[in-house]
Every structure is written in C-alpha cells, then in structure tokens.
Specification:
CATH class of the largest domain: Alpha Beta
Distance between the termini: 41 Å
Structural class: alpha+beta
Shape: flat
Radius of gyration: 26 Å
Largest sheet: 5 strands, antiparallel
Helix content: 25-40%
Length: 261
C-alpha cells in the first residue's frame, strides 16, 4: 500500500532496481521504490570494458544504482551501476529493507484494527510529514515511548500500534570505546588499579548499560560502554573516566584517557 514513492528520485541518490530488459547498448530497469523505469547505459555498467553485457547483469536481477540524470518531462532516468561502491550498496539495501518493514508493520496495524485504507493513508502521510520513513518513527517510539505517535495516530489506536512496534522492532545497541593509561607509584599499585577498574565497572553497569574494561598492555586499558543510545553511552563513559581518574589521584596515581574514533 505504501511501497511507491511519489515523483522522481533526486540525482545522486542510490536506488534499488530490478533489471527488466537487456540490450547491446544498456539495461532497462524498474525502480522498485517508484512507479518509474530507468536506463543503465552500457558505459555505466562496469568500470572495466564490457564485452558482453549479459556477463554483468541478468533479467530480474536486483541491483543498486546511482541516479545520474532525471528528465521529469520525458520521464527519463539515467542510472549508473559502476559508480556504486560495496559500502553504498549495503547501505541502500539496508535502508530499503527497514523502510519496507516499517510500511508492512503499519499495514498490519491497519488490518488488526480494521482501519479503512483512507484513514490508514492519512496516518502514513502524517508520519511522513515528520520522518523520512515510517520505520524511523517506530524506532523513536521504541526509544522514547508511545507519546511519539500523538498527533499522527488517533488516540484510541496508539496503544495497539505501540504494542505492535515493541514486538517487532529492536533498537540496535550502541558501542563506544576508549583507552585509559593508568599508573600508580605505590607498592600495591597493580592492586589499586585492578580495584579501581573493578569498582568503576560495577558502579556504572546496569540493565541498560554495560561497562567493560580490560588490560591491553601495561599501562593501557580498554574501556567499552554498550548502551541503547549514544547519549547514555557517552554520559556513562564520561562518568567512568572521571571516577577512575579521581580514584587514581586519591592513591597518588595518574590517569589519562583517549577516545577511540
């Protein structure tokens, strides 16, 4: 119901396509997210010389292409296969999958609540006025709560949609890391460092955040924080570093920290 985008894709974006027809001069494809077709000229099939185009593309094959030119009046779209890196391909495929999943969940919600198609479309349009995809809205609801749906979903249906979203979307955990350099001149300096790291780890680990620290090679120690969002992870990391630094100073020790990027 919500599979197709309106209008034309912007030049420079990456789109999922299905190969329809193959000619000696290029390949005709269907843009899966639009009610449109486009052409991949043979010069844009591969960076190397193309002796036989069928060695590179086949009918019904799914490909990721870069939009290089759009003529809206003629409904003509030029695409490139060779200008897509493996990383760009993975990002485009992942974006397409989560977008499709969000739309399917919204359709399921409509079916489960017997919501007429015109009303469900209105909910979809309201969501799209505030988010780039339905899935993005659902992710924010998982992170911040069902109040995210207010003003977009009728009040009597918010709880139902929220339950569906919670049952089907898991927020990916965020992991940030850094490196501590620790030294303590006292006779039991090694034990001081071990106890400092152990107590700091236990103090800031809970059901939402995990803190892990281990020796890389004296005096270097790895610090890893895993949380549900960047803000929580960053706040915890800052607290851990400050706590370790303060504890080391109380034992006449030194601590320095370097964040991994």
């Amino acid at each position: 119901m919500f599979e197709l985008e309106e209008g034309f894709p912007e030049v420079g974006i990456y789109v999922i396509c299905t190969v329809k027809d193959i000619f000696p001069y290029g390949a005709m494809v269907r843009l899966d997210e639009y009610d449109l077709e486009g052409m991949i000229p043979i010069r844009e099939i591969s960076s190397s010389w193309v002796k036989n185009i069928r060695n590179h593309v086949k009918e019904n094959q799914k490909v990721v292409c870069k939009v290089t030119r759009v003529d809206a009046k003629k409904r003509h779209i030029d695409l490139s296969l060779r200008k897509v890196t493996n990383h760009q391909k993975k990002v485009a495929v992942q974006r397409y999958k989560v977008k499709k999943k969000g739309n399917k969940l919204l359709e399921y919600f409509g079916t489960q609540n017997s919501i007429p198609s015109d009303q469900l479309l209105d909910i979809y349009n309201r969501i799209m006025e505030n988010y780039s995809t339905v899935y993005e809205c659902f992710e924010e609801a998982v992170a911040d709560g069902k109040h995210v749906f207010e003003g977009m979903v009728p009040p009597q249906h918010i709880d139902s949609l929220y339950e569906i979203v919670l049952s089907n979307i898991e927020m990916p955990l965020i992991e940030i890391t850094g490196e501590l350099s620790l030294s303590c001149p006292t006779g039991d300096g090694i034990n001081v460092i071990r106890q400092t790291l152990s107590e700091a780890r236990d103090a800031y680990s809970d059901d939402q955040v995990t803190v892990d620290m281990h020796l890389l090679g004296s005096p270097r120690y790895s610090v890893k924080v895993i949380a549900e969002d960047y803000k929580s992870a960053e706040n915890t990391l800052d607290k851990v570093v400050k706590d370790v630094t303060d504890r080391m100073k109380r034992h006449d020790g030194e601590a320095s920290f370097k964040r991994n990027r």
